[in-house]
Amino acid sequence: MEQSRRDRPAEPGDRLSPYWTNPEPSPLAVKGYRDWVEEQIQEAMARGDFDNLPGRGKPLDLTENPFEKDWLVHHILKNAGVAPEWIELRREIQADLAWLRDHPDHPDRAERIRETNRKIDRYNLLVPIPNLQYPRLTPATAPGAPPRTAGGGAQPSPEGSR
Questions:
Q1: Predicted local confidence at residue 6, as pLDDT
Q2: Residue 150, SS3?
């Protein structure tokens, strides 16, 4: 009579999962990898596992590059509806520049220029491409500032030439 597993000394195969010690060949060995995977997919389809998936019937978004350096971070931020900090700062700076352009004589203009310069400094540290940086503002160079005169004539502002 054969001894039970508790009564006999442990053998190396006793610690392995039944998958490795099973004398029968695995489904992969019998059918091959592709046939086995295809069978699993067909069974899942028959059960309805693929019904009502998000994005069903819509084209795939292939604009993202999974081999990009920080792809996963950008992917998570995009799905959460959040942009990187430098993009959010750029939006705030552009809104501030529009406010300065629309309020040339506002009493809070100097304080708004200081706040915008703080945002510009932070943005310039974070932006990944140096040629996207903004120059710091002065009361004379901020949008909406009175035009400088050279020889008595007014010069057009850079905003008007765009």
A1: 60
A2: strand
